[in-house]
Protein: Lipid phosphate phosphatase delta
Amino acid sequence: MEAADAAVWQGAVLGGIVIWVVTASFLDVTLKLRSFLQPWVSHHVDIGVPFILQIQNYRFGFLDALFSGLSCVVSVPFYTGFLPLLFWSGHGKLARQMTLLIAFCDYTGNCIKDVVSAPRPPSPPVHRITATKDEEDNALEYGLPSSHTLNTVCLSGYLLHYVLYHTQIDGVHATYIGVPLVVLLVTLIGFARVYLGMHSVIDIIAGLLFGLGILALWLSVDEYIDNFVVSGQNVISFWAGLSFLLLFAYPTPEIPTPSFEYHTCFNGVALGIVTGVQLTYHQFHSEFVPRLFTSEMKILVFAGRVLVGIPTILIVKFCSKALAKWTIPVVANTLGIPIKSSSYIPKLNPLVTGNKPKEGYFQKLLSTQDSFDVDTGIRFVQYTGLAWSVVDLVPSLFTYLSL
Structure:
């Protein structure tokens, strides 16, 4: 009976997404929302330029380095490197919740960015400070909302919630210390994004409001999601279907940006984490596993885990990408799906070869789509494999090596 009920609600969720994709495409929902929101947001970006210039009048090298470094610490690449360490330290529940939360934040924030398609502050006259390659890529995205602000609100807020309700730390003292720290961090991040010329004030306000809304929603469903991931019915098949449909539910921006690529990566990460945890929860991720800074896991053991784990997941990432680059084009050609590649497979890049993809049966069915970019599938498989290795393959190696 429980399995039947699960199948019903899971089918309803996936079916609802399909209906939404078809309906939104038919009614041009994205274009209508953009035509309504974009002029208003763009106006506020323009009138916010003098305020940004006033802040940048006080620029000097130390503040450039401070705010650039602070932005890196709360960026998606930082979380991508930090979350495996959290899993390997024994804090599995916190790690999987923060992974799924940042995937949700990334998807929601980037969807809003590409629906509105509002510009960042014009440069010049604003001086845009991009100290890293990641920041240069971020500058290619649209502005509203500020992803750094949104992610900081959600992840720091959830971390504080976890400390207060799932640890032995005194709740009163943690609240008095934690809440001001979270507020200070969010304030600094918001100011840093304006100082660096990456966002207007309207982007920061939107990031703050959307972040608070997402955090409130997540805190109301996090236990249900966690229980489903570790002990639910049809978890892997449902999440695989959800991940696949979310790729199609993503809105089309006014011009292509890296936002969809970022979402694809974290979509794959979420699927890999859910798959690995579902398969190995009782072995590696229950509440009874050894944790860092306890008698069961000394710092040297954790250091050994890191030395084994990091190279392993990088090897899996490389192998997953190579396997996907070989299998996905073969499967697509077998099914008659017209394909292209933006960067991963040069011989499938029309700009390199000058060849137009051959028309197949699926192209006739979907006449608005010239061809499908296999880079999306390759990227998705690559990060699914990487995330699975973090929670399944690498912990198995730890067991084998007595770590």
